[in-house]
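Let us practice reading a record.
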Amino acid sequence: MLLIAPVMFLIGYVIQRWVLNPLMHRGGEPPLLAAFGLSIIAQNVMLLIWGADARTLTTSYSNLGVSLFGVRVPLMYLIAFVLAIILIAAVQLFISQSYLGKAIRAATQDPSTAQVMGINPRTIYTFTYGIGAAIATLGGTLIGLIFSFTPASGLTWLLKGFVVVVMGGMGSIVGILAAGGILGIAEGIGGAIVGTGYRDMIGFLIFLIVLVFWPRGLFGKIGRFA
């Protein structure tokens, strides 16, 4: 996991630098379509190499569990939760304290002013995409240790990630943590009551309710990173 993250950072850097950046002056749609096209190519390449069968990542502790308040919790769930908290805290510190993090915030909020202050927004976008790819690698590895996956599984988790970000509030890392916890608990309880087949529906229903009453998300603030 730690070895592949730097590789994915480089791949993300290259994609943003030479594929997406040249399209950004044409608006938001061309880079989005280009990224979608690259995802389709990647899925088909993985299908050719590994096939469409579901796979899982297994370790010596994959089937172990711990008892919390009388409830047996799979050890991998606990490990994933702790690592997710650490990763979110690290991202929060990086965004709020480091020079690159502050540059990312500036380029996001006001690219023109950031450029006047000596920040190259396109370079910042490139590093941001690479960092995002590395973080996605860590998250994807944890998902693969808990759930089965196929080359097409990314879309499901992409939608869940979108729901968590919008529900928590754009730009709010604390909101992402809160929204992820709320969504996970709601899906778990709802799945136990009405069946696991309805878990995704419950999550999207909560998402819609939040958008109706809090259009900016639970912790969203215009132009700010919480």
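A brief commentary: Strands lie at 65-68, 71-74.
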